[in-house]
Each structure stands twice: as C-alpha cells, then as structure tokens.
Amino acid sequence: MFDTTVSEASNLLGVSVGRIHQLIKSGQLPAEQVAGIWLLDRASVEARRKNPPRRGRPSAHGNQATVARYLLMNRTHEVLSFRYDASTGEFFEADEIIDPARAPLSIMSPRGTRASKVALSYWWAHRVIPKARTGIDAKLAELGIDDIANLPFCSLGLSLSDQYWVKPYQSNLRWEDINFFSNNFIEADSADWLSGVGLDSPDNTSDGVLSKRWVCLEGERRLLKGGTLLEQEPFNEVIATELFSRLLKPSEYVAYELEEWNGSWVSSCPNFLTDEEELIPAYYVKEILKQPEHRNEYRHYVECCQSLGVATIEDALGKMIVGDYLMANTDRHWRNFGLVRNVETLEYRAAPLFDTGSSLWCRVPTRELSYAPFAFDTRPFFDDANRQLRLVDDASWLDCGKLEGFAEWAADFLEENPAMVGRTDFVFEGIQSLVDHVRLLFG
Predict the structure, then answer these.
(1) CB–CB of 224/267 below 8 Å?
(2) Looking at per-residue confidence, does 392 or 29 come out higher?
(3) Model confidence over 330-365: pLDDT tens digits?
(4) Phi and psi, residue 238, nearest 5°
(5) Is residue 57 predicted with pLDDT exceeding 60?
(6) Closest Cα to residue 374, out of 386, 388, 392?
(7) CA distance 407 to 47
(8) Which among 13, 41, 156, 168 is most buried, taking Cβ atoms within 10 Å?
(9) Percent of residues, the chain, with pLDDT higher than 90
(10) Which DSSP state fits 221?
(11) Which residues neighbour 114 within 8 Å (Cβ) at sequence distance 6 or greater?
(12) Count of alpha carbons within 13 Å of 329, Cβ hemisphere only?
C-alpha cells in the first residue's frame, strides 16, 4: 500500500531523505507520486528495514551487493551499459557499446568499439560538486553518502548542462518524464546553497567551486552564482554582459543580471541550452586529436574544432580573447568555454561566452593593488595577456568606438557594492588602460 511518506521512510530506515529519493529513483523502493508528493509502499520499506543491504569493502571484481548495472543515456538514446560500485565509487568497463557517436566526447576509443573506464570515471567526476565547494563535506555526512561520486545518482545524473543521465538497467524510466529541461525539480526553501543537493535536483551535477544553485522562475531555468569575500564576481558578470552587449551579437554571450538573494549579491543567468543540446567543455574537444609536438594549444584546439565542422571557431575565439583581455579575466580555463552539440543532429557550434566572474582584479587584496598596477595572467593559451591577444588575426568585428564610456560605466556599477570602497578608481584606470591598448592594436 502506497501510504508512507518520504519522511516516514527516512525515519524507519535511519537514512536521509535524500537517500530515500535515490532509492525511489533507482527502483529499489516502489513508490508513486500523488499530488506532487512521493508515497512509498509500506511493505517494501518494512522489508528493507528488516533486511538492510550488507555493507563491506568489495573484492577486485566488486561486491555484488553494491554493484549495479546502468545504461548511460543521451536524451532518449542508449549510449552504453556499465556497472558501478556505489560502495567505492568505482566504474567497471562498459559491458555494451550501443551508440558511440552520442557518447561523451573523448571517452571512446578511436574506432568507437571500447569506452575507457578511466576516461568515463574522469568525466563523471566533473559531473559532481567538487570537494572544494564550501559545506559539501557536512552535506555528504547529512545525506549518509560516503563517496561524492555517488551524489549524481540521487537524481540519475541529470543535468541542465547536457542531456546525459543514468538509467537503471531494464527500468521503464523515460526521458520525457524525468528531465529537468521540461519537468519541475525540487527547489528547497532553505537559504543554504546546498539545500537542494541530494534531492531530485540539477544541483547534484553542478561543477565549479563557487556557490551556485538552479532555480525555476516562471518556467525559465536560471543559474544563481555567488562570490567570494568581496562579492565582486556577480558584479563582474554583469559588467562583462555590458561589454559583450556593446561588441557582440546576443547569441554570442550569456546575459547575466545582478540579484540580491538571502542577503548576498548573486549573478543570475538563463540556461543557454535547449533540451536537445549539450555543452562540451574545451578540455574534451582538444582530446579528440593527438597534438603534434610543434603545434601550440591554440592551433591544436582550432584544428580539433574544425574537424568537428566548426569552421568559424577562430572568429569565436578571437571574441573570447579580446573580451577576456578587456575584463582582465584570469580564469578562462578549459572547462568554461567550448562547443555546443545538438544530440539529435550531432551538429556543433561554438558555445556563447559565459563565466567571466573571476576578473577585474577581484582576488587581489586592496592594499596590493597599487604595487602591481593592471597586471594579470591569462588562460587558456598563454599566461602573458599580450601574447594571447596577438593570437587574434582578424578583428574586423570589433568596433572600438563602442568601448567609449565603458570604463566609467563599470566603475559606477561597482560602487553599488559597499565592499568595493577604495577599489573602483583602480578598476576604472585598469579597464581604461586595456581599452586604450586594444584601440592601439585593432582600432
């Protein structure tokens, strides 16, 4: 009889509410949803209470009590089957390769006949909240999850950054019924950034160190992201939006807004993917071809993109490099730019520019600003900002006249943040010096 609530089952079994949701999703506890509330089968809960799963360290071939078989899905497409040991967070070699063309980029062998267990584990590890995220250790203890790699299984590995998910083998789950693009997900009311973690939420697969969470506002999926000590990063995202709006087409960048959320400043942006698209970080793109010893990383990445049919990639990279230079962005790492792939047509395009918060000297202490005026290192191709800027061969898209007044706008906007006292004059002078240099090179 389906008359036991998730909270009651949690108390009966002595596990967290998040663990109950995980058991429902995996089919280990029968349940049905009534008026938006999950009700479990009382007899099944009692049976599990009387005969709890045995724990213990598995053998080299895995403990059969904790090893489960899944299908890795890409939207409605079966990609491969694999086995996973929840007691160790260990993946085993894929049992069956079904659709290698829709597998995560770089995990397949060149001929598409084998999936690398190491590459699959690495890919999965970056679908998980990193250990450096504030509060995650306490959250895992609360959920009763020993290995952080198990966290995405709480929501079947579902994300709002791609279409991948894990389906318990021989289950009847359907993408149309569970995906977060078109179905509601749990949004905890708590002000805690991690309150949705462990529930049926895309927060289980949110990568990155800064605090973040997904919300659904009037049907639109939006990502909220916080900042560090000075809370400058959310302001920087809006400043980058102003910059890009002056120079680029709306489709070439993600537009951020500034919001106050539970007493803190956050940036807010819409999900830039449709329910048929996935973001592929540049890290995986550059792995599809072997890099010749004489070829620098920029040229190698361009060739990888062109091999996937993205003929205009140098134009997109030029806009990224110039934009990052004008924002003094120090953190354009290989995971916050890349390509977007349509999982139905398998066509690629350059991803819009996003994640420019770690810029404008936000991590430099105020007392040190005057000692190294306007200095910053860049990524991903060269540490030297000017050397990276020289990679841009064609800047015909750049209208330097539209940069007039940008430095003043940014400084005025930053003054809305009380923590920026004593910093805005420096930021103004720094941006203006970068604008002047870009004008000298490309104007």
Answers:
(1) yes
(2) 392
(3) 999 999 999 999 999 999 999 999 999 999 999 999
(4) -70, -35
(5) no
(6) 386
(7) 66
(8) 156
(9) 60
(10) E
(11) 93, 94, 97, 108
(12) 29
3-class DSSP assignment, residue 80: strand
CA atoms lying within 13 Å on the CB side of residue 413: 22
- Residue 260 exposed, middle or buried by CB count within 10 Å (0-12, 13-18, 19+): exposed
Match 């540049």 to its residue by tokens. Answer: 282
Q: Name the β-bridge partners of 161.
A: none
DSSP code, position 228: S
Measured CA to CA, the distance from residue 189 to residue 195 in angstroms comes to: 8
Distance between CA atoms of residues 154 and 128, nearest Å: 11
CA distance 375 to 405: 22
DSSP 213: E
Angle at 26 between CA 22 and CA 29, to 5 degrees: 80
Q: Which of 382, 322, 311 is nearest to 349 (CA)?
A: 311
**pLDDT of 276 over the 60 cut:** yes
Alpha helices in 206-312 (DSSP H): 232-247, 282-285, 297-307
pTM of the predicted protein model: 0.84
CA-CA distance, 186 to 126, in Å (whole number)?
22
User: What CA–CA distance (Å, rounded) separates 410 from 387?
Assistant: 25
360 neighbors 236 (Cβ within 8 angstroms)? yes
Which pair of structure tokens corresponds to residue 178?
């569970």
**CA angle (309 as vertex; 241, 285 as ends), nearest 5:** 65
Q: Are 270 and 352 in contact (CB under 8 A)?
A: no
Please state the rounded mean pLDDT for residues 253-265: 94
User: Between 393 and 208, whose confidence is greater?
Assistant: 393
Query: How do residues 139-152 score in pLDDT, each as one tens digit?
Result: 888 888 888 888 99
Q: Can the peptide bond before residue 380 be classed as cis, meaning omega within 30 degrees of 0?
A: yes
- Reading the block at residue 334, the tokens are 């290989």
Interacting residues of 27 by C-beta distance below 8 A, sequence separation 6+: 168, 171
For 97-146, what is each residue's pLDDT tens digit?
Answer: 999 999 999 888 777 778 888 888 889 988 899 888 989 989 888 888 88
As given in the structure block, the two tokens for residue 420 are: 């920026």
Q: Residue 232 burial (CB < 10 Å; 0-12/13-18/19+)?
A: buried
pLDDT at 58: 38
Exposure class string for 354-378: b at 16+ Cβ within 10 A, else e: bbbbbbbbbebeeeebeeeebebeb
Cβ atoms 391, 298 nearer than 8 A: yes
